[in-house]
Amino acid sequence: MFKNLTKAEKSWVLYDVGNSAFTMLACSLIPIWFKALAIGEGPGKISSDQATAYYSLAIAVVTVAVALLGPILGAVADHKDRKKILFTTSVALGVIGCIVNGFAAGWVAFIVIYILSRICYSASLTIYDSMLNDVTTEDRMDQVSSYGFAWGYIGSCIPFLVALIAYILGPDAKMMGPLNEAGEKMGLLPGNLSKIIGFAVTGIWWFLVTLPLIRNYKQVNYVDTRKHAIGDVLKKIGRTLKTIALHDKKVLFFLLAFFLYIDGVGTIIDNCINIGTDLGLNTVGQVVFLLATQVVAWIGSLVFASLSKKHATVPLILICIVGYFCVCLYALTLQTIWHFGILAFGVGCFQGSIQSLSRSYYSKIIPPENSGEYFGIYDIFSKGASFLGSAVIAWVKLAGGTINIAVASLAVFFALGFVFLKISDRQPAANRQ
Known about the structure:
By secondary structure, the chain is mainly alpha-helical.
């Protein structure tokens, strides 16, 4: 499964396998369950368009919170023996929140618990990404990072299949079971049981697959200082930001490029089900296509992992950006479930690779002893971009526009990201002596 990987590298890759189960649920069944709770008639119910907008705004809240907390969390994690403690805590809270989410009976409680769970999940990823410098060497970073996304995609299918079966058997899918007064299928699983099963199996899988990293990880690179106060941490972050802005143009222009192109990536992932639902497409068909996309993403990530052995990282990222640019423009033609399937296939070809190669490239151009802090800053640009993209989706929908136009507008961010990444690649590496 993990050919030629060390024990530390395998453990690190496995966390992608674990957390990707939550990612898969978040971009497929969670928005469906949310809409099932939110829309309809009666007190507290809202329209489908309002549900789409509120869901996008919830994602925006998460991204802003993580963007603000990320640098502080990362800077604290850079101190000796802090990464494992903070990582384990954020994972534990995220897993608990994930399981509890299944028991939420109202849409407000559902979205609030989901926001808190996703903040913890995102916090764990900030620290996890910064661990790459500790578990492998620079010449293997592209390969190991790509393996993480590749096996994360295929591994997430296992718990997701259980969640999908529970959804099909539940009342929200309306595919099985006896008929109600309206002539609709009532489901074989009663009430919220399908949601409870879906969230529980995802949370348990996430926790169990994370255990090897918790057990085997050792922090190799760290800041040798006793200053842990928030004031000291904030001053250090300020100095680092000033250093990047004035003296490290390679990192600066990469972060600007990353901010722009990852905007589209994150927004499409978070809103893929909303895209199909707003087009009136069959929900189960959408989820099946997304499951197939995981296999495509697995293959795509392995292909780019192999290419990274012979080719420089930046040209490979540029190929992914161009691919996403084309996907955004293709969204203007979406009408049928098969159009949606082609869109999902295009996303799958580049989704894992653009993220994994960005992560490994960034790891190469930053000081390893400050990787936590730098990946906290990385998250500002990553989550800030996702906030902007989700806000665009919400604004277009609330203004009466179509989801096709909203997705197509993201092509601008990929075009600008391409330009800034080319500029970054031309900059000399900073002198860190």
